[in-house]
Amino acid sequence: MEFLKKALNPLRTLFRSNKVEKKPQTTGALLVDLQRALNYTFTNAAFLEHALIHKSSIIQGDSKGLDSNERLEFLGDAVLNCLVTEHIYHKYTDYSEGQLSKVKSLLVSRKIIGEVAQTINLADYLSMGHSEKKSSGQNRTSITSNAFEALLGAVYLDGGIKAVRNILSQCLFGRIEQFRKDKCNINYKSKILEMSQADGFGIPQYPLIAEEGPDHDKKFIVGIDIAGVRLGKGEGSNKKNAQQDAAQHALEKYDKEYILTLRKGE
Question: pLDDT by residue (tens digit) across 95-152?
Fold first, then answer.
C-alpha cells in the first residue's frame, strides 16, 4: 500500500551505505541456492552477503557491530512488524485491537520466525565464528530468527516493500492458521491468567513439586493453584515448560463455581 511505502522509504535511504560493499562471506553457489529458496534474486548481492554475517565472525575492530548483520536485523524487524500488522488487519476484519495484538505477537515471535528460517535452511548460509559453530550456534532460534529479520532488511533495501511482502506471503502468511492451531504455540499460562483475573481470583501460582533425574536430563513437576485451589500439575524439561503443561491441564477443568465451592469448604 502507498502509505507503507511512504512510511518505510526513509528507512531505505537511512540504511543504504558503503558498509554493504564487502567481499563475499558465502560462496556464490550457496547464495544462488538461498535466493532460489526465497524466490527472489538480489540486484545487489552485497546486501544478501551482509545479512548473513553473524557478529561472531567479526574478529576485531568492530565494537559497534557495523560489519555484522545487526543493523539489517534492526531494519528487518521494523519491516516485518509493519507487514504482519498490515496483513492481519485485512485478514481478520472482525478482530478487536487486543485480538490482533495477540496474533501479531505470535507471528513475530522468535519461535515462529525461527521456524520460518528453518524452512529455507537459513542456518546453512550463515557466516559464523569458530566457537559459535562449535557450540551449534547456527541451530539456536535466537540466531536464526535474527538472521531472517536481517535477510528481510536486505531484501527491503534491494527490492522494496513489495519484494518483502512476497517473501512473507510464501514463508509466513500462508501458515498463520497452522501456527495458531499448533498447541506448542499456545500460551496456556496467559489464557488461564486472563480467566483467573477476570473471575477475581488473582494470579495463578505454580509451586515446584519435585525435580527428577540427573542434571543433564532434568524433569520438573509443578502444580497450579488458583485462589488456593490446586487445579492440576504439569511436567517439563524446565520450569517454564512444566508451568505451560500445568496451565493446559488446569484450563481443561477450570470452572469458577467449582473453585468458589472448594474455597467455601476450607
Answer: 988 889 888 988 998 889 999 999 999 999 998 776 666 555 556 788 899 999 999 9
pLDDT, tens digit, for every residue of 210-248?
998 887 778 999 999 999 999 989 998 888 888 988 998
Tell me the one-letter amino acid at 47: F
Torsions phi, psi for 117 (to 5 deg): -60, -35
Q: How far apart are CA 154 and CA 159, in angstroms?
A: 8
The reported pTM is 0.66
- Verify whether residue 77 is a known catalytic residue: yes
Q: Would you identify the CATH topology of the domain 2-185? A: Ribonuclease iii, N-terminal Endonuclease Domain; Chain A (1.10.1520)
67 labelled catalytic? no
What single DSSP character describes residue 92?
Answer: -
Q: How far is CA 247 from CA 80, 194, 256, in A?
A: 31, 12, 15
Q: Among residues 115, 149, 158, 245, which one is catalytic?
A: 149
Which CATH number is associated with domain 188-264?
3.30.160.20
Candidates 49, 73, 77, 158; catalytic one: 77
